[in-house]
């Protein structure tokens, strides 16, 4: 008669990725030049930037690098002076490339291991949006074996198969307080996999300008049997059965790129890239819980993402035989439409600037360092689903370093 | 070349050091055309922070006026004091706590009876027993008195009949003769909120139309005018709230006729209907079959249904025959509900008319809570609705609010004040406040 039916308290937990989750840190030389590299040829990072250019590399490469990422986001709830900030956690995107082929041959094999999507956000458990998100740690590691073939002196093609190992660890508060007034908590933790490909064409035109065109395919990453951990007051734990698992498929979108390299004189390289990211494939996010109750239903949440664009430019100046100075920058439009912005990746149109320095340590050994600063435009939003209303502002600081051995 | 490298390191290092926190610049909050230096709140149990069927310290600390008072401090508001129960007597009048669920999902509530702030009881001739609480003699900004009606604000003996008012007055019954209105006006103030009038309709409704009467519409209008004229006599500004639709609270919507009947039919498929004692007209009541428009109160002991009752026709099951209808006090029947609704509408027209005439801000609680009942509400990722316990808005008594409910109400008051006086009192962080506590 007086049966208490708990609300459907658990709205879709993960708003998933946006431009904010696309991590454009796949090579230190390229980062220094505004993360361009589709239409230019620098080193083994071409496995990612343009597999079609790999066969044109004059040498074999083994290289690895890391870009500690400081993501600093601020949320100001509407109608207040309150500032909720993310805590200082450092994400670690990395890249590793190997390229090998017989000397002066028409083909090269490559392997890339890199992290094109991810996020590390921790808003804490006391901020205004704790019932939307407390923290998120998202990683996607792509493994890409690659074959590239030179068809002519001016034309090469290449492609690679992509295996993605993805993992997610997300926490949020549940608005069910225990006798001491502490809210419950949900944690979704799991890993999964997905497959895709990456292919490109590289052309050296008669005018000396180089052109690259690439397509990196969508990678549908399925997390199956992830742990769904619900800490709620004892008397209602049965509405959130434990242990429980969840399944979800997240589309990591396709990227189409065209890039150009210009060589005005021997000391200078100028590069220009344009990317189109097919986020519009991302319509809904669903979570399927293995054990459902009236309080814990599967969720289907509208996303309605839009296609996003980025424009990148950069330059390298060879100061001496051993030293290269690099700088660049660009603009990326947001994939998230008004009303869909969330604390997972408080996405907005962004501008960024980069600096880089390359130094030849020894005959076969390069060290490259880079620094990138990204600024996401202030964006005032009321999320349709959570009604969380306020202004987001985000700055990202990314130093980076890599070593490359070539022979 | 080395120097260049060092420079880059230094620049990068500086950039990192300068990687200071992002800052969103917000305009400085302003008081607009109002003066919040001494804000007082006038009202009843809702204003006092009453919850879970009692007044206790934890509830007082999250009363909506205290939340508003705290937010006003950003725009020149002073200290906001309340007649709090002491820590030693923090359970005040006692209250209900949720201690578990039965196998069928129904909640088990248990009264809290320790650390009370009760000092005794007196019997007032011709009125009845009055529980006396520990006196409070400090400063007061929150004048909320549980149980008070608008009807009582000029009634001099009232301080002897309501223990919650009596504890704020210096004298003992039957010596108190300060009216509530005089008590509120004793100390100057610059801004007020007023949410009186609920009990003029609610007390009738919660007693199933049996234990109280609706305040006469003209009397209500006369007294409301007296109240607002007095409160604004020195040009003070303020905000008033309308009276919620009584049928929008879980107290009348949790135990339903159809649910009881379904329970009966499980045991006895032949049962056709529940019988209630329903209003015919005036004060004439007659038994009839209950419909879904008849509202059963939350406190109805459903175990009574079907118990044998002695009648001239022999023993008949309670609630299941016209000779043994459910008692009037347990049912707000369709006509009683319509009558209450009619009075509430009239009271609210009075409130709005007078408030507009005096240039006051209005929080239309009637519309707001009605909307929540129909559509629910999502705030900061939390869904709330009008369901008992699970809705997160109403406390265990089904009438008063949870801390989350009071925070939402405080925020609505602030919105109304800001809109009217071009002030920018900071909005409330609803996610800081809980719903019902579960064991």
TrEMBL record, chain A:
It is a multi-pass membrane protein. Gene3D superfamilies: Outer membrane protein transport protein (OMPP1/FadL/TodX) (2.40.160.60). Residues 1-18 form the signal peptide. It comes from the Bacteria. Transmembrane segments: none annotated. GO terms for cellular component: cell outer membrane. It is found in: Cell outer membrane. Keywords: Cell outer membrane, Membrane, Signal, Transmembrane, Transmembrane beta strand. Belongs to the OmpP1/FadL family. This is Long-chain fatty acid transporter. It comes from Mucilaginibacter ginsenosidivorax.
Automatic annotation (TrEMBL), chain B:
GO terms for molecular function: hydrolase activity, acting on ester bonds. PROSITE patterns: PROKAR_LIPOPROTEIN. InterPro entries: SGNH_hydro_sf. This is G-D-S-L family lipolytic protein. It comes from Mucilaginibacter ginsenosidivorax. The lineage of its organism: Bacteria, Pseudomonadati, Bacteroidota, Sphingobacteriia, Sphingobacteriales.
């Amino acid at each position: 008669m007086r049966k208490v039916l708990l609300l459907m308290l658990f709205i879709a937990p993960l708003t998933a990725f946006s431009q904010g989750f696309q991590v454009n840190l796949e090579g230190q030389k390229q980062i220094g030049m505004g993360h361009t590299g589709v239409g230019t040829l620098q080193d083994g990072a071409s496995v990612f930037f343009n597999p079609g250019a790999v066969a044109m590399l004059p040498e074999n490469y083994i290289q690895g690098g890391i870009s500690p990422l400081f993501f600093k986001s601020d949320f100001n709830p509407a109608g207040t002076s309150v500032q909720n900030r993310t805590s200082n956690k450092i994400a670690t995107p990395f890249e590793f490339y190997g390229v090998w082929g017989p000397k002066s041959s028409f083909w090269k094999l490559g392997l890339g291991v890199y992290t094109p999507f991810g996020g590390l956000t921790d808003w804490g458990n006391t901020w205004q949006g704790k019932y939307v998100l407390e923290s998120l740690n998202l990683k996607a590691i792509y493994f890409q074996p690659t074959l590239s073939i030179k068809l002519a002196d001016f034309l090469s093609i290449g492609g690679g198969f992509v295996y993605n190992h993805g993992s997610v660890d997300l926490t949020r508060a549940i608005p069910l307080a225990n006798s001491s007034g502490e809210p419950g908590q949900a944690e979704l933790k799991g890993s999964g996999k997905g497959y895709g490909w990456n292919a490109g064409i590289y052309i050296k035109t008669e005018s000396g300008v180089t052109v690259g065109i690439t397509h990196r395919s969508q990678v549908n990453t399925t997390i199956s049997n992830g742990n769904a951990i619900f800490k709620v007051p004892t008397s209602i734990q049965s509405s959130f059965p434990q242990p429980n698992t969840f399944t979800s498929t997240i589309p990591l979108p396709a990227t189409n790129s065209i890039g150009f390299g210009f060589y005005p004189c021997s000391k200078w390289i100028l590069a220009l890239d344009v990317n189109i990211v097919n986020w519009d494939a991302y319509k809904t996010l669903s979570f399927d819980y293995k054990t459902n109750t009236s309080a814990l239903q599967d969720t289907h949440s509208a996303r309605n993402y839009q296609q996003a664009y980025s424009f990148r430019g950069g330059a390298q100046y060879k100061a001496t035989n051993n030293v290269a100075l690099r700088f660049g920058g660009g603009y990326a439009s947001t994939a998230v439409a008004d009303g869909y912005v969330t604390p997972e990746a408080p996405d907005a149109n962004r501008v960024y600037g980069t600096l880089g320095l390359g130094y030849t340590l020894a005959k076969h050994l390069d060290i490259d360092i880079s620094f990138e600063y990204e600024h996401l435009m202030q964006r005032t939003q009321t999320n349709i689903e959570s009604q969380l209303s306020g202004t987001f502002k985000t700055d990202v600081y990314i130093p980076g370093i890599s070593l490359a051995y070539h022979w | 070349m080395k120097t260049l490298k060092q420079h880059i390191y230094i620049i990068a290092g500086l950039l990192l050091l300068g990687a200071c926190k992002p800052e969103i610049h917000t305009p400085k909050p302003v008081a607009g055309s109002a003066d919040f230096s001494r804000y007082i709140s006038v009202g009843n149990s809702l204003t006092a922070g009453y919850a879970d069927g009692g007044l206790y310290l934890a509830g007082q600390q999250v009363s909506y006026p205290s939340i508003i008072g705290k937010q006003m401090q950003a725009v020149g508001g002073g200290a906001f004091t309340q007649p709090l129960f002491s820590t030693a007597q923090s359970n005040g009048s006692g209250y209900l706590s949720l201690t578990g669920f039965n196998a069928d999902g129904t909640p088990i509530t248990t009264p809290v009876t320790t650390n009370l702030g009760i000092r005794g009881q007196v019997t007032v001739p011709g009125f009845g027993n009055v529980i006396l609480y520990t006196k409070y003699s400090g400063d007061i900004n929150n004048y909320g008195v549980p149980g008070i009606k608008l009807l009582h604000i000029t009634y001099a003996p009232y301080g002897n009949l309501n223990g919650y008012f009596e504890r704020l007055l210096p004298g003992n019954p039957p010596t108190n003769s300060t009216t509530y209105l005089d008590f509120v006006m004793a100390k100057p103030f610059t801004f007020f909120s007023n949410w009186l009038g609920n009990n003029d309709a609610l007390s009738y409704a919660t007693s199933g139309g049996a234990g109280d009467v609706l305040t006469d519409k003209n009397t209500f209008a006369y007294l409301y005018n007296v109240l607002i004229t007095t409160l604004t006599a020195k040009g003070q500004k303020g905000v008033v709230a309308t009276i919620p639709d009584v049928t929008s609270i879980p107290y009348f919507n949790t135990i339903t006729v159809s649910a009881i009947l379904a329970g009966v039919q499980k045991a006895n498929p032949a049962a056709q209907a529940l019988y209630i004692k329903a209003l015919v007209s005036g004060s004439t009541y007659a038994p009839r079959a209950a419909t879904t428009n008849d509202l059963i109160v939350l406190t109805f002991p459903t175990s009574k249904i079907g118990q044998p009752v002695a009648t001239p026709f022999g023993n008949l099951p309670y609630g299941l025959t016209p000779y043994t209808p459910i008692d009037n006090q347990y049912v707000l029947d369709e006509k009683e509900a319509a009558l209450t609704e009619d009075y509430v509408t009239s009271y609210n027209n009075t409130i709005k008319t007078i408030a507009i005439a005096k240039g006051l801000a209005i929080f239309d609680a009637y519309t707001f809570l009605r909307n929540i009942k129909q559509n629910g509400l999502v705030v900061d990722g939390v869904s709330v609705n009008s369901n008992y316990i699970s809705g997160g808005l109403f406390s265990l008594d089904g009438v008063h609010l949870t801390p989350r409910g009071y925070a939402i109400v405080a925020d609505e008051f602030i919105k109304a004040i800001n809109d009217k006086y071009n002030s920018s009192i900071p909005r409330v962080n609803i996610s800081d406040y809980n719903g019902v506590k579960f064991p």
